[in-house]
């Protein structure tokens, strides 16, 4: 059809309408390069440019993430005094947001005299896509104050922000807003299932899932992903089988969730089973993420050599994530030789990621090779790579409280340390021993114990115990993997206090109750 229209355009007299129609047609049909070429031709010929010309062409830039072309079009729009037009401004904002230029997107948004619903939605999505979840929530509150009409797309973006920040109260409030607005879309429903699971409320997540009569694959994926994060492996497997029975066909996300749960639960044979199902499924194309998960399945179970072989025979170039997974496995199973090879690959792929240097240093430290530890740490310092600081946070009385190791700035810090000492005192009565091997500094054992004592998740737990009612779970979130000593501490503390602790680290949710953890000490 596009070819026919182009032929007619060449034969018939051209007008602004025909040019604009042609550019819009190319953009809407995914022919973004052709849309840009046609605009360039139109501009060369000195044709009049309108807000419709520019907005359609800029939309083509958004589809192909063509930031340089968008900047040029922004300049043209400014010269023609069309940059404040709602269509043009919204299109520019959308490109900047998608290309991680969120400050520029905000600047365009602030300059728009008439902020359309699409503009608000684009900025919401931009904040969430760029990981600026707090800013997305602030924007949402501003939109509510200004009476901006809510859409399913807007609410879905904000729910994603709540899920990433694990804001339980805000997530519940948004659920109420959705019910009040009468929205029933599958995408929103899946977002709600996801937010409850990410906030540690897996029971509410499943109750919502079970309540829905019509469920598409996105909703099933959200629930399977929730079970996976909470170490409910068998429940996830049952759902997978139920999908087959109901002829709801799994997609790439479904298989990814199943492989991920097998990885974090140490289910090697089950992991092989789902990977083989994926390979034989003609409706789904295995991608690099699936292979990355399978490498993790093998590596976490100590099969580092088999993971290494898979890396070399798969139809993709190994990614930083794969090498990082292999390096982590080498640390757990004390394979220094393979760790060094994996680290060298990581340093090439991610030269600015200090975490890779730290992980290699930890491999050497675990085997007592302090000379190589010093060498690895010196290389980290010389490279200028940044190490991410560990943080834990907890929600109490509508506020997020963030802790770092050895925290001293919190207003309740004295009470927090007193509570922590009280817990350790009770632990000594039952002969709990600190796992000093989890501290990888070359110092005396007493110093190791002191360093481990004030890890951020322990401080967050102590704060939760003095701040939250005894009848509710204490939910803590951490940006790094929980260490072995903190994991052991949480189990014993849960037994002593008779409370449920839920800790979400980078791998999964850990439910500590009566002296045990839902992960079965495998994470």
How is the topology of this model organized?
Layout lengths: L1 H10 L4 H13 L3 H13 L6 H13 L3 H13 L6 H13 L3 H10 L5 H13 L3 H13 L6 H14 L2 H14 L4 H13 L3 H10 L5 H13 L3 H13 L6 H14 L2 H13 L7 H13 L3 H10 L6 H13 L3 H14 L4 H13 L3 H14 L8 E5 L2 E5 L9 H17 L15 H9 L2 H12 L6 E5 L5 H14 L3 E4 L4 E5 L2 E2 L6
Parallel strand pairs: 3-4
Antiparallel strand pairs: 1-2, 1-3, 4-5, 5-6
Helix pairs in contact: 1-2, 2-3, 2-4, 3-4, 4-5, 4-6, 5-6, 6-7, 6-8, 7-8, 8-9, 8-10, 9-10, 10-11, 10-12, 11-12, 12-13, 12-14, 13-14, 14-15, 14-16, 15-16, 16-17, 16-18, 17-18, 18-19, 18-20, 19-20, 20-21, 20-22, 21-22, 22-23, 24-26
Description:
The chain has a 6-stranded mixed sheet with strand order 2-1-3-4-5-6, covered by helices on one side. Among the domains are: 1-114, Serine Threonine Protein Phosphatase 5, Tetratricopeptide repeat (Alpha Horseshoe); 287-388, Serine Threonine Protein Phosphatase 5, Tetratricopeptide repeat (Alpha Horseshoe); 392-517, no CATH class. 66% of the residues lie in helices and 5% in strands. The chain is mainly alpha-helical and 523 residues long. The protein has helices spanning 2-11, 16-28, 32-44, 51-63, 67-79, 86-98, 102-111, 117-129, 133-145, 152-165, 168-181, 186-198, 202-211, 217-229, 233-245, 252-265, 268-280, 288-300, 304-313, 320-332, 336-349, 354-366, 370-383, 413-429, 445-453, 456-467, 484-497; strands at 392-396, 399-403, 474-478, 501-504, 509-513, 516-517. The N and C termini lie far apart (55 Å).
């Amino acid at each position: 059809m596009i070819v026919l229209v182009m032929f007619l355009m060449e034969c018939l007299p051209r007008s602004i309408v025909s040019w604009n129609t042609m550019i819009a047609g190319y953009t809407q049909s995914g022919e973004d390069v052709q849309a840009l070429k046609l605009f360039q031709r139109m501009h060369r010929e000195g044709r009049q440019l309108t807000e419709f010309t520019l907005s359609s062409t800029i939309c083509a830039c958004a589809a192909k993430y063509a930031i340089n072309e968008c900047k040029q079009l922004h300049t043209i729009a400014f010269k023609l005094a069309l940059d404040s037009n709602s269509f043009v401004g919204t299109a520019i904002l959308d490109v900047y947001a998608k290309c991680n230029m969120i400050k520029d997107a905000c600047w365009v948004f602030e300059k728009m005299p008439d902020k359309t619903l699409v503009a608000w939605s684009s900025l919401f999505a931009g904040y969430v896509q760029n990981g600026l979840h707090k800013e997305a929530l602030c924007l949402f509150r501003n939109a509510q104050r200004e009476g901006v009409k809510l859409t399913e797309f807007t609410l879905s973006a904000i729910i994603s922000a709540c899920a990433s920040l694990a804001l339980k109260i805000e997530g519940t409030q948004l659920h109420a807003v959705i019910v009040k607005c009468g929205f029933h879309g599958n995408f929103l429903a899946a977002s709600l299932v996801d937010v409850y699971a990410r906030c540690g409320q897996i029971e509410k997540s499943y109750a919502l899932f079970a309540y829905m009569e019509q469920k598409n694959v996105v909703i099933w994926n959200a629930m399977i992903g929730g079970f996976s994060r909470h170490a409910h492996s068998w429940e996830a497997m049952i759902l997978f089988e139920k999908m087959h029975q109901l002829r709801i066909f799994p997609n790439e996300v479904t298989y990814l969730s199943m492989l991920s749960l097998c990885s974090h639960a140490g289910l090697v044979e089950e992991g092989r089973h789902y990977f083989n199902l994926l390979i034989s499924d003609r409706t789904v194309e295995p991608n690099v993420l699936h292979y990355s998960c399978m490498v993790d399945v093998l590596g976490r179970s100590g099969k580092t050599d088999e993971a290494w072989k898979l890396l070399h025979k798969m139809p993709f170039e190994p990614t930083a994530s794969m090498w990082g997974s292999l390096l982590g496995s080498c640390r757990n199973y004390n394979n220094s030789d393979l760790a060094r090879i994996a680290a060298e690959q990581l340093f090439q792929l991610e030269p600015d990621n200090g975490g890779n240097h730290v992980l290699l240093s930890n491999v050497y430290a675990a085997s007592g090779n302090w000379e190589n530890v010093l060498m690895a740490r010196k290389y980290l310092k010389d490279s200028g790579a940044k190490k991410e600081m560990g943080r834990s946070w907890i929600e109490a009385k509508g506020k997020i409280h963030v802790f770092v190791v050895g925290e001293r700035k919190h207003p309740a810090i004295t009470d927090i340390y007193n509570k922590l000492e009280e817990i350790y005192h009770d632990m000594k009565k039952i002969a709990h021993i600190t796992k000093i091997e989890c501290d990888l500094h070359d110092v005396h054992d007493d110093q190791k114990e002191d360093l481990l004592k004030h890890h951020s998740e322990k401080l967050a737990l102590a704060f939760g115990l003095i701040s939250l009612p005894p009848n509710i779970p204490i939910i803590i979130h951490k940006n790094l993997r929980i260490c072995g000593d903190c994991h052991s501490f949480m189990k014993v503390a849960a037994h002593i206090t008779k409370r449920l602790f839920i800790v979400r680290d980078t791998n999964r949710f850990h439910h500590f109750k009566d002296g045990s953890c839902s992960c079965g000490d495998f994470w």
